[in-house]
Amino acid sequence: MGRPPDPARREATLARATDYVLAHGLAGLSLRPLAAALGTSPRMLLYDFGSKQELVSSVLAEARRRGATRLAENLPSEAGSPEERLRGIWAWISAPERAPYVRLIFEVHADGLAHPENYPDRAEAITNWFDTLGATFRDIATTPDDTVTPTLVMAVIRGLLFDLTTTGDRHRTDRALDRFCELLRY
Amino acid sequence: MGRPPDPARREATLARATDYVLAHGLAGLSLRPLAAALGTSPRMLLYDFGSKQELVSSVLAEARRRGATRLAENLPSEAGSPEERLRGIWAWISAPERAPYVRLIFEVHADGLAHPENYPDRAEAITNWFDTLGATFRDIATTPDDTVTPTLVMAVIRGLLFDLTTTGDRHRTDRALDRFCELLRY
DNA sequence: CAGTATATGGTACGACTGTTTCAACAATGG
DNA sequence: CCATTGTTGAAACAGTCGTACCATATACTG
């Protein structure tokens, strides 16, 4: 009896809201412009997600899910030497198509630093973005429980991403990765 | 004729406002709470700085100035081997006392990525933070116009700072820097 | 003293925010 | 048909935001 619920609508809205956040950032996110861009109303956003907080959480989870999926699709899992994998990951994550994701990662990270109370699952929300990548380099470790080399590799990727997004100097950052690969050979 | 202007008040306000921003972050900065914390009024903040935008610009400039000063004081300029300097810089910038500055750097960087229009002097506002550090490593370059090695060194510092601020795992990040120093010896 | 400049408090405006309330509509089951 | 349940629009609420306006207090010069 009664009209049946429509969970598909909520998911469709979530997908488009994630697009919007990836395009416009989290910082100034407001329900009314978001709803207008999605062809819906603030009323419906709250109806579907309960509150803005939960909407944001859902969007971040969705973005994380997308990133992980894209990564799994485009990385040759365990094949190739560590250096080849490192180059592949850098080429993939530094590509312009990934820029919205990179921006969002930096945004969540920075906001989490200033306002940790908004991110109860901060470890999950931020770290996991890179954990998937870091896992790829576990076998670079000299001993099974060595976490230092993966940490360094991930630091180079993150640091070069910071540089690239700030300066836009792809040539210089690409060559810096080359230099790091040289160093890793020893 | 007339009451003389009091530029000292503006500078005192700027100093305390910078303290406040370093403590609370840029994200949710609002004139009324800021004024209350400073024992003044929004009215006076606008009287002194003209607009919130200019206040923020002034605060960022002041924070940059402070960072540069502290850096100049605590780094043994050109003395020591590159490795010693790198270790010194890491120890200095990763110290808890620098955490507010590091947070602010990441915050400005992230906000600049999503909303570049707010940072017409983005290169100055963000890059310069690290440029002072990067300059210290110019002599690591293999040739005079080699910018790649300094880029890599700065990337490691930035990337490890990202890691440290996210995970708080000082031991692992410290050891990752050790590992990088080892690699650099070759 | 008057005149003139800066300094400051109080208040309100208009635009925004997330959220709520109330009413109406749509689609299904009995 | 009717009752029930999910869906949706319009409007309003209470709050915050940056900022502007107006009056007044303060401190100096002549």
From TrEMBL, chains A, B:
Coiled coil: none annotated. Residues 30-49 bind DNA. Residues 7-67 form the HTH tetR-type domain. Transmembrane segments: none annotated. Keywords: DNA-binding, Transcription, Transcription regulation. Pfam families: TetR_N. It comes from the Bacteria. PROSITE patterns: HTH_TETR_2. This is TetR family transcriptional regulator. The lineage of its organism: Bacteria, Bacillati, Actinomycetota, Actinomycetes, Streptosporangiales.
